[in-house]
Amino acid sequence: MMRFVMGRFFHAALVVAALLILVFLIVHLTGDPAALALGTDSTHEEIVAFRHDMGFDRPLWIQFLSFARGVLLHAEFGNSLRYQEPALPIVLERLPATLELTFAAMGVALLIGVPTGLFAAILRGTWRDALLRIIALLGQSAPVFWIGILLIQVFAVQLGWFPSSGRDNGWMSIALPALTLSAYSTASITRLLRASVLDTLTQDFVRTARAKGVSALVVTLRHVLRNSLLPVVTLVAMQFGTLLGGAVITESIFAWPGLGRLVVQAIYNRDIFLIQAAVFTIAVLFVAINFVMDILYMALDPRIRLR
């Protein structure tokens, strides 16, 4: 097991190194970073002075070494151009709100998607199965912004059950954003689990358990569901990245004070160092979540080993 964990950790470290290069290149792929940061209203002298102050006039490889040393040794991305403070602490200040929304959305997706997918497989061929599949298809097809606006219109404006924005009312504030963000993941989990359960039901160990007189409930929960959850674990790991990215739209709709909304504001303000810090933080989180999911995958199926 230790070999498996160390191998996955080594792969994660390689991915983080590649991310460091990509985040650095974000500033340079769009043109002159000094002109990008200052905008079209700045003079040539201001651009030249800013380029010198930020070190953008040095060779590219020297800039990368300085950037990598600052990130890896001191966790520094530079000062935010808008806030005039170190960029990473600003990102970390907004991160808890985004993680709260992401985990809430994933919790809703699992709470709804797992039993729905299981019931759809058990009720295969019935009208209830068809109805659940249609709802899941709609959940994957509907745009996030449309779902968010619809929920605000119905539950916040017309019924007045939940607030339409902000984070000041506890679970009531997170209810609509979490439902909005979880729609696609819920539908994906439902459809994948249904297909996985149908495949597991045809396996020999299931028929053997039934032939030995094991009750249908025990067979379903202990044998079928556990083995069917393996592909769902992989999907959940990928969906975390989707949720973190989708939070940009959801947080903007509901004025949720998280990292996604901060990224949108940083793009509008051309705050390149804040964008770098935010993108790298989200990417590292995604790598860390996938690392944890790999370990969980092995725990669910001990046959998995790193060769």
Automatic annotation (TrEMBL):
TM region(s), chain numbering: 101-123, 144-162, 174-193, 229-254, 274-300
GO-annotated cellular components: plasma membrane
Biological process annotations from GO: transmembrane transport
The entry's keywords: Cell membrane, Membrane, Transmembrane, Transmembrane helix, Transport
Membrane topology: Multi-pass membrane protein
The ABC transmembrane type-1 domain, residue ranges: 95-297
Principal location: membrane
Gene3D superfamilies: MetI-like (1.10.3720.10)
Compartmental location: Cell membrane
InterPro entries in the cross-refs: BPD_transp_1_N, MetI-like, MetI-like_sf
Name of one Pfam family that matches: BPD_transp_1
Record-given protein name: ABC transporter permease
Record family assignment: Belongs to the binding-protein-dependent transport system permease family.
